[in-house]
TrEMBL record:
Signal peptide: 1-22
InterPro entries: CD8_asu, Ig-like_dom, Ig-like_dom_sf, Ig-like_fold, Ig_V-set
Cellular compartments annotated: Cell membrane
Domain Ig-like: 5-117
Any GO BP: cell surface receptor signaling pathway
Name of protein: CD8A protein
Amino acid sequence: MTRSPALLLFLTLGLCEYGHRAYKMSVKFRDSSTSHLQEGQRLELECLSGKEDSGVFWIRLDKGGTLHFIAFITSLSKLTFEGSMKTSTRFEARRDGRFYRLTVKSFRPQDEGNYFCLMISNQVLYFSPGQPAFFSGQQYLHPTSLSSAKIPSTFCSGPFLFSTPAETSKEKQLNFFCDIVIWVPLAGASLLLLIALTVTITLCQQTRRRRCRCKR
């Protein structure tokens, strides 16, 4: 349905939907002294989420500029790894308050890349800056931005990644109620305006006729 300016005004005022809010997210190595990565080491990263009741996705931008889904951690600490698996042989993940942690069990060349976390709030994606994780001398040779990232078809196998969840029945009922609250008064006001306009035109015509008779 195309939204009218009146509907947009109501939405802006927040009567039927909550407005979007900017959330800041950050990713870093859990051990601040981590600098030179070695093959086979255990690497721990943490994401600070701007919202406690929202799950967080972990993704990696590899050397070739392709995105890889790693894990999704819900606000209830439920885990989903690549391939919709509940566990992973390469990664561990958990939630600790506002921190969502990812562990690479044994860092290998195929794990090199820039690590990002993201969350979905009000059907809007919020990304963190990337945390480079490369062996010594490699971090400046590969893409660091998501703007030119390649998204493979298998990437969207994660839970509703880059898509919005379907509306629940309660959300549909709320939207229907909002439409009624907005459109019924507008329809009534339009009808009253039409009636008033008709009455005004009729009175003007009658007044004009009386004046014409008097002149004669």
